[in-house]
Amino acid sequence: MSLISGRKSGLTWAVHISTLCLVLLWVMPTFGLLVSSFRTGDQISNSGWWQALGAQETRVPPIRISGDEVETDGGFTIAGNLFGVDGSNVTLWGTSSQATQAYEAGQTADLSDGMKLTVVADGSFALTAPDSFSDKRLPRVFATAVIPPEFSLDNYRTVLFSPLAGQSIGQAFLNTLTVSIPATIIPILVAAFAAYALAWMRFPGRALLVAAVVGLLVVPLQLALIPLLQFHNWIGIGKGYLGIWLAHTGFGLPLAIYLLRNYMVGLPKDIIENARVDGATEFQIFMKIILPLSFPALASFAIFQFLWTWNDLLVALVFLGTSNDQQVLTGNLVNLMGSRGGDWEILASSAFVSIAVPLIVFFAMQKYLVRGLLAGSVK
Amino acid sequence: MNPALQAVVTIVVGVGGCIGYFWLSNFILDTVIFPASGPRAGRNINRANMVRPWLFLFPALVALGLYLAYPVVATFLLSLHDDGTFVGFANYAQMMSEDKFWESIGNNILWLLFVPAASTAFGLLIAQLTDRIGWGNVAKSLIFMPMAISFVGASVIWKLIYDARPAGQEQIGILNAIYLWFGGDQPMTWLTIPFWNSFFLMAVLIWIQAGFAMVILSAALRGIPEETIEAAVLDGANPFQVFFKIKMPQIMGTIVVVWTTITIVVLKVFDIVLAMTNGQWETQVLANYMYDKFFRAFDTGVGSASAMVIMLLVMPILVWNVYNARKEMR
Description:
The complex is a heterodimer.
Chain A: H1 2-5, H2 11-37, H3 41-46, E1 56-64, E2 69-72, E3 75-81, E4 89-94, E5 103-104, E6 108-110, E7 116-119, E8 124-129, E9 140-147, H4 154-161, H5 169-200, H6 206-216, H7 222-235, H8 241-265, H9 269-277, H10 282-293, H11 295-311, H12 314-319, H13 329-339, H14 344-364, H15 366-374
Antiparallel strand pairs in A: 1-9, 2-3, 3-8, 4-5, 4-9, 6-7, 7-8
Chain B: H1 3-33, H2 41-79, E1 81-82, E2 85-86, H3 90-96, H4 99-129, H5 136-144, H6 151-161, H7 174-181, H8 196-222, H9 226-234, H10 239-250, H11 252-268, H12 271-276, H13 286-296, H14 300-329
């Protein structure tokens, strides 16, 4: 439009700003959880994640003085810094929980046992006493200070390597992988053959079958759960991996056939006709011409199905058990929300472990995912 | 057997079996039953070609029939029984006498009214805004990203936003922080406010589905012929008139497709309500109600009945889609 009118519309700035606002609005929730996953439980409970981005004044939980004592003339001294990081700025401090802001930075406190404690603005302290500290109880310091943001990987370490609520998330990760990969690969081949038949072979009832596939796309999952679970129990596979692979194959087939058929219909007719004239069997045409040419559609469906099976909760709850070697990441996360709902540091890092793989797949393969969505949707 | 090993074996058996079946069946058809040589070659080839589509379709038809078609009938039959004994429509009667059921229907209607509309509107807005700016693809990528996250993951993210700490303490949920900053007197537990909590839950689904709407509508907008827009601009239309009078009518078909697809997702939504409120504080929806009945109360009859209600609600869309597909085939 700017090319036609010849000058840049003032609207352009409005467009940029509104887009920026919308993008920020959409990214903010995920970003908040991401920031929280790097903070300790205390930090999360005491301040919002948006405050962690800049240095903030907080009441630091009590820190007990510790260090090696040095004998100086007239007494013993322990010196050090309250915080491990530079850039802190202590404003007020105290030594008892009843008077946490009794002293300003730089003042000296007289404590029991003849000890004197000085805390300076940058967090360094000096504790002196006429005799050795070895039999004394070292004081705690309650500081109100401006501390620069401090992040750690501890939450991820806890979540990945130790079992929480009886379930190990590392194992859940492997379980989810075990569910998703076969559930993505198996439907592809079955659907590809069916899609080819529906796209390029003439037979009575073809239109009806295509309409049936379109109809089945809409059938809600909930309808199939109860009878299929009974069926699985009846044929003896009960709740387990085989059951969930078969279930995901069945549920994913309509979409697969729909996507692949739409794509195959668009393939150049001449190549197929020429191959037939040259004497190739249908099977050969399929394996050597159709499949390679349909690769974009196959990739689209594969990514779609992978994301769908990875993120699924309902099918896993129904067809797979909840024991440690069967529970998937989504089920794990729902359990954590129930049992450790208040421990945001655990929840945040677990959530990110479970969404890490889909996000990577998403950003790497976005093109195919978009193409898959667009197939047949744009009229 | 170690699940990972089982997975590899299944993949090999599945893929190998598939290829093996197709190759073998085609081979038998072409060489044994209807050989393409000899005096009857022509007739044989024709007959082979008539049978062949069904060979290709057979595994898919079995899977579809078993996993999607049969359950529809089976669930209906299950809804007429109670633990094996035929009870007619007693399950439906029992279901309709429960308050939780009507609460679910009411909530589902709310969800159906707001979520597809809001998602499509946002999607359309963002699609239009990002259409011509340089960093449009990055923006679209970021807004599309929530589609990759599981519903449960999204629930965790939004639960943090809605978190409430007792008054006087620092708020860690950003909604309460903003609310207090704008002058609210005390932090609200957003998810327990009756009626309005459903909207807070809907926000999660809108956040996710807007990206989907945006991707499809963006492609649709790109497909609008440039001439129609140029003609309107030459006639003096301002950008808003161009959008509402020229662009929107031309992509109306796609808007309907997006709307109906999101509607289907809304009817299936179960994870969000389960993870965030589990149906308490009057947020229950049909999908979660069905899950409750089947897996907590172990009531197959009423569970199946509620599944049939979901199917009923989806039926208009099913008919509409099939009708359009048949129209296209002609």
